[in-house]
Hints:
mainly beta
Amino acid sequence: xxxxxxxxxxxxxxxxxxxxxxxxxxxxxxxxxxxxxxxxxxxxxxxxxxxxxxxxxxxxxxxxxxxxxxxxxxxxxxxxxxxxxxxxxxxxxxxxxxxxxxxxxxxxxxxxxxxxxxxxxxxxxxxxxxxxxxxxxxxxxxxxxxxxxxxxxxxxxxxxxxxxxxxxxxxxxxxxxxxxxxxxxxxxxxxxxx
Length: 194
């Protein structure tokens, strides 16, 4: 992870950076059971840029981020005879955000924020299969999940009444397409573990 910060003339502040995350998950084959999460390698590289400006009573901020995620998965089929299957996913995710904080009086300020982001499915959401003892349920991933897309707008107003007393009114709108979640099923399954 690397980050670079700089202050520029005109009350500008710039922050930029790079991140790299490598995950290597290898299951122990000596347990004799099929794992809940398969073997996988994930390589995620990210770059971000944030610009801020403080001018009189108005504070602005704009940010962008890009993530490239390579996911290589090795699974074992659930049918007999067991076979090894290999899958490769490449996800291009990006996000944008922008906001302004306006101090209208010494006691009243308003904040506006707008953000849009993409989130790729995690390996457990794609490939989990089996009993997850932490939630006492059977989880099954879906290999065909799409990237989640979210748009969010927030508007808040803060009124400072006394030193330790303030009033806040907040409104927001959020729209998510291809929302990824763990959907409970109404059927029960009996396993050798109960």
